[in-house]
Amino acid sequence: MPETVFVLNGPNLNMLGLREPEIYGSDTLDDIANMLDDKARALGLDIEMRQSNHEGHLVDWIQEANAVGAKAVLLNAGGFTHTSVAIHDAIKAVTVPVIEVHLSNPHKREEFRHKSFIAMAAKGTVAGFGAMSYALALDAAAKL
User: Fold this and answer.
1) How many Å apart are CA 101 and CA 75, to the nearest integer?
2) I need a surface site. Which of 8, 110, 115, 125 has the fewest CB within 10 A?
């Protein structure tokens, strides 16, 4: 049975493809999920793709990934990246490795995006490569 990687997406990521395509690209979250499904199969993995605009769901899902023995979590926390001590604490409370993912490079954007509560707790970060950030993070997860 293939190991599972949870791919968790935070607020407004359901709007990919419509929201500021000059920053986030034209791929939708469904496009990214399809690409990751294909890549995961090639790596001998399964993915569990989820999105929520609610912080508590992300906390619950991080804990769930740990409880079911997921191989890793790829987390694009969206705006919660810069504000959520709760998600930071959830990552610190589990043993499943969490890889932070960003479509854009937060350090090339507004100053408030330069601080990541997620990065302080995550195994690593992949940012700035558009939808390919997810694929690169999945490659990293496969090697953990």
Assistant:
1) 6
2) 110
Specify the residue for token string 């508590």.
56
Per-residue confidence at 25, pLDDT binned at 50, 70, 90?
A: confident
Q: pTM higher than 0.85 for the full model?
A: yes
Residue with the two structure tokens 């399964």: 46
Please say if the pLDDT value at position 85 is more than 80: yes
Dihedral angle over CA of 52, 47, 70, 82, nearest 10: -40
Residue 5 to residue 38: CA distance in whole angstroms: 13
- Of the pLDDT bands very low, low, confident and very high (cuts 50, 70, 90), residue 18 is confident
> Collapsing DSSP states into helix, strand and coil, what is residue 116?
coil
Tokens for 132, please give them.
């390919």
Which positions are annotated as active-site residues?
24, 102
Write the DSSP string, 7-75: EEE-TTGGGTTTS-HHHH-S--HHHHHHHHHHHHHHHTEEEEEEE-S-HHHHHHHHHHHHHTT-SEEEE
Q: Indicate the residue type of 99.
A: I
Sign of the alpha-carbon torsion through 30, 8, 36, 45: negative
